[in-house]
Amino acid sequence: MSLDSDRDRNAKRRWLPRAEPKGWTSLDLLAEQEAHLRPHKPKSLCGLSFLDSAFHSRHRTRRVQESRLQPRLLREPAAPAMSIFEYNGSAVVAMVGKNCFAIASDRRLGVQLQTIATDFKRVFKIHDKLYIGLSGLATDAQTLYQRLVFRHKLYQLREERDMKPQTFASLVSALLYEKRFGPYFCQPVIAGLGEDNEPFICTMDCIGAKELAKDFVVSGTASESLYGACESMYKPNMEPDELFETISQALLSSVDRDCLSGWGGYVLLVTPTEVQERVLKSRMD
Amino acid sequence: MECVLGVVGRDFAVVAADTSAVQSILVHKTDEDKVLVLDSHKLMGASGEPGDRVQFTEFIQKNLHLYQFRNNIPLSTAATANFTRGELATALRKNPYSVNILLAGFDSDVGASMYYIDYIATFHKIEKGAFGYGSYFCLSLMDKLYRPDMSVEEAVDLVDKCIKEIRLRLVVAPQNFIIKIVDKDGAREYARRAYTSNSPSDAATVTA
């Protein structure tokens, strides 16, 4: 059973028509050294492109057969099979207090196992009382944020007022579902003060399924740890200072258990009268 | 295999890249310039697929020149970086470019700045960065030795240490490097580093 026929068969499963490199011989292995830099040079034989295959990571097969070909020396450094959502690493959490809310994120920008920067911004302002935190793939978070700011500015010009958080959440949900079959690999966390300064938080998955909550919402690679930490530390109707303390402790203790997020924290506390931004110093690993 | 690294100092930025053009086991050239001078005060160090690298960086360069012809003022470094990121992001889900970019520039109001733009259009402003296998060796060296107010000599010394490490520790390492600098006097080539001696600890002839 030749390797080429496997690849030809699997080539039909691909979504995008793309030329597979001919001649998968040992001479080409040197050229494949930095395959992790190219979006479409899959190590597996299932023939899916980088972005699509990450979305269907459960269907990867026959990866072991491929790696036996390459001499150990020339194989690329340990790049475990990571989901596209774990490519950059992120952690975002939002909590509701008494007439206030807090939204926090970690500060690491990584490329799989390597840390590139420790001052990356994940929480963005839409208007004075509305913030969105975008976890997941950093490039899509930046693209999505630019699109959302554009839409909000147009809304401001037409309606001559700021968007309500509930409306904005619907907008984000619609934008994400537009890309249902080629999504943005982000999970947004939206937090804002609505009518009568009532705090509003919600999160959604990468295709726009809204999840409203009355207490806290989390997303990112550290989300499971965050759920646990927030559930145990949260109390309803916390004052701003206590809310800040709670969200900080929840964030820091969760990202300490996640290798892909951390390297500091960034917390925004929003009350009807002021906005407090703080940068947390944490375990820098 | 292709290493690009950059450091921002006090009112200048240094970008260095290896100068090998490799295909499979063959080294086509050992003096390929991978740090393109975009305009008078900008440098773009790029690594990745050779065709994409040349096409994309020249595309950015020509668009930059067009803007300057049309508007009579040069584009700022931040705007250039955002434009580059936008082009990569637009192409990402159609026909992606496999190019990683370190864009360094000097503006009279902001000073020197450097931007890290991934092949999937991840955009971030950084003080020190590196791409490729060389980054596994360089980034930690830079973390230890970098200071924000470095002089040109100190920054080039840091880059030399990184080059030495790459030569010593990377299997099938590129031997020759080019170092370019951008400061208030413009973007220009600063030095080339060529491996001339048998002793692995020797660093190089300087032509600048």
TrEMBL record, chain A:
One of its GO terms (cellular component) is nucleus. Its main location: cytoplasm. One of its GO terms (biological process) is proteasome-mediated ubiquitin-dependent protein catabolic process. InterPro entries: Proteasome_beta_3 (IPR033811), Proteasome_bsu_CS (IPR016050), Proteasome_sua/b (IPR001353), Proteasome_suB-type (IPR023333). Keywords: Cytoplasm, Nucleus, Proteasome. It is found in: Cytoplasm; Nucleus. Non-catalytic component of the proteasome, a multicatalytic proteinase complex which is characterized by its ability to cleave peptides with Arg, Phe, Tyr, Leu, and Glu adjacent to the leaving group at neutral or slightly basic pH. The proteasome has an ATP-dependent proteolytic activity. Component of the proteasome, a multicatalytic proteinase complex which is characterized by its ability to cleave peptides with Arg, Phe, Tyr, Leu, and Glu adjacent to the leaving group at neutral or slightly basic pH. The proteasome has an ATP-dependent proteolytic activity. Belongs to the peptidase T1B family. PANTHER family: METALLOPROTEASE TLDD, PROTEASOME SUBUNIT BETA TYPE-3. Component of the proteasome complex. This is Proteasome subunit beta. It comes from Zizania palustris. The lineage of its organism: Eukaryota, Viridiplantae, Streptophyta, Embryophyta, Tracheophyta.
UniProtKB/TrEMBL annotation, chain B:
Keywords: Cytoplasm, Nucleus, Proteasome. One of its GO terms (cellular component) is proteasome core complex. It is found in: Cytoplasm; Nucleus. One of its GO terms (biological process) is proteasomal protein catabolic process. InterPro entries: Proteasome_alpha (IPR050115), Proteasome_beta2 (IPR035206), Proteasome_bsu_CS (IPR016050), Proteasome_sua/b (IPR001353), Proteasome_suB-type (IPR023333). PROSITE patterns: PROTEASOME_BETA_1, PROTEASOME_BETA_2. The keyword Nucleotidyltransferase does not apply. PANTHER family: PROTEASOME SUBUNIT ALPHA/BETA. Non-catalytic component of the proteasome, a multicatalytic proteinase complex which is characterized by its ability to cleave peptides with Arg, Phe, Tyr, Leu, and Glu adjacent to the leaving group at neutral or slightly basic pH. The proteasome has an ATP-dependent proteolytic activity. Belongs to the peptidase T1B family. Component of the proteasome complex. This is Proteasome subunit beta. It comes from Zizania palustris (Northern wild rice). The lineage of its organism: Eukaryota, Viridiplantae, Streptophyta, Embryophyta, Tracheophyta.
